[in-house]
């Protein structure tokens, strides 16, 4: 009997590999002779690099880059087992966690460090880059990234504009002729689960700016500046990019990646499923187990358990989800391929206790699920 174990991470407690190991440990107590295939998963957000590195026997590369405030930060990217694919979480370089609460201001934050991570990845002669763009502290339309990769965003004095969304208003011309030539040989996939345009009421500044420290006045400034920035870039390239779904993701980083690097924006879990070659493991499987930290009604919107379940149902496989917690509205996931849900929390415990003992609780839950299944001669 072959059992596929493909969970996402349980935030703040277990990596995806930790969760897979715990589920395997619990099931082995009941089904010791089963064949277990562990595939750490992610949906393009936090933990994607680690999951794909773990799933492909790759490696983490650590780098010091320019953080969102222009100071040095420690960041990383993943080199997958094929040695041809790099995985980057833009938040590692340009994420909100790098900015103290009192300093959050998207007028000044930059994506320059994300560009530096891409440059570092190119040194490994890769052919494919996967970029997860959640968790950004920025609203610069990807301007900093473009500059780091050799693009010139010039003011009226023919000098590079400064960092941050506020400086976009100074842009008068662009020159992309010096962008790193190696990028022409690289396919860029962007893990993006939002469809916001660059500007307007549903754009980068209006929707995501406030969580990055933008007041209503700052939102107006950023939106105007992004529109100005887009006007000049689109005039240079003779094409409209700002209204493409996802252009507004990560403070407009989606726009920069689409316009300058011809990147393809795709749901994160779909990129990960393809990268780990998930489907090839399903043909002779008997059961698929997935999971994440919390399963609720939002899980159906591109989260890992649903991506795993939909793919597994192509092969008519039963799918069980194990989660840190399950909300009262979680039953909707059964309409999307998950057959049963189980929470790992054994009783009324504190959040601190649940996080601290997540591994042990997951082992226990997996063992109980397996014991129940054994009654049906699985």
UniProtKB/TrEMBL annotation:
PANTHER family to which the protein is assigned, alphabetical: GLYCERATE KINASE
Keywords: Kinase, Transferase
EC number, as in UniProt: 2.7.1.31
Domain of life: Bacteria
Name listed for the protein in its UniProt record: Glycerate kinase
Entry GO MF terms: glycerate kinase activity
Lineage: Bacteria, Bacillati, Bacillota, Bacilli, Bacillales
Source organism: Metabacillus fastidiosus
Similarity section: Belongs to the glycerate kinase type-1 family.
InterPro entries according to UniProt: Glyc_kinase_flavodox-like_fold (IPR018193), Glycerate_kinase (IPR004381), Glycerate_kinase_RE-like (IPR018197), Glycerate_kinase_sf (IPR036129)
Pfam families registered for this protein in UniProt: Gly_kinase
């Amino acid at each position: 009997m072959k059992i596929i174990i493909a969970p996402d991470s349980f935030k703040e407690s277990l990596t995806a590999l930790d969760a897979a190991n715990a589920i395997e440990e619990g099931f082995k107590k009941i089904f010791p002779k089963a064949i277990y295939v562990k595939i750490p998963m992610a949906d393009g957000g936090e933990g994607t690099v680690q999951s794909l590195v773990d799933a492909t026997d790759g490696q983490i590369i650590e780098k010091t880059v320019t953080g969102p405030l222009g100071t040095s930060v420690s960041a990383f990217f993943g080199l997958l087992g094929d040695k041809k694919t790099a995985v980057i979480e833009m938040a590692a370089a340009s994420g909100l966690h790098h900015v103290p609460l009192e300093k959050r201001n998207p007028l000044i934050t930059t994506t320059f460090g994300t560009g530096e991570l891409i440059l570092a990845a190119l040194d490994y002669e890769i052919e494919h880059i996967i970029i997860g763009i959640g968790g950004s502290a920025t609203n610069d339309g990807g301007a900093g990234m473009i500059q780091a990769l050799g693009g010139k965003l010039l003011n009226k004095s023919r000098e590079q504009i400064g960092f941050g969304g506020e400086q976009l208003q100074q842009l008068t011309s662009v020159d992309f002729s010096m962008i790193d030539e190696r990028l022409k040989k690289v396919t860029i996939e962007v893990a993006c689960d939002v469809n916001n345009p660059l500007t307007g009421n549903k754009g980068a500044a209006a929707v995501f700016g406030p969580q990055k420290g933008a007041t209503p006045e700052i939102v107006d400034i950023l939106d105007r500046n992004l529109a100005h920035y887009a006007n000049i870039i689109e005039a240079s390239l003779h094409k409209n990019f700002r209204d493409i779904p996802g252009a507004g993701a990560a403070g407009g980083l989606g726009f920069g990646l689409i316009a300058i690097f011809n990147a393809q924006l795709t749901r994160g879990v779909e990129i990960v499923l393809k990268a780990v070659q998930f489907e090839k493991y399903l043909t002779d499987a008997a059961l698929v187990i997935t999971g994440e930290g919390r399963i609720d009604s939002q899980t159906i919107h591109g989260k890992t358990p649903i991506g795993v379940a939909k793919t597994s149902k192509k092969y008519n496989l039963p799918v069980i989800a194990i989660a840190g917690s399950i909300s009262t509205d979680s039953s909707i996931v059964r309409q999307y391929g998950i057959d049963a849900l189980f929470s790992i929390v054994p009783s009324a415990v504190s959040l601190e206790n649940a996080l601290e003992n997540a591994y042990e609780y997951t082992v226990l839950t997996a063992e109980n699920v397996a014991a129940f299944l054994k009654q049906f001669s699985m």
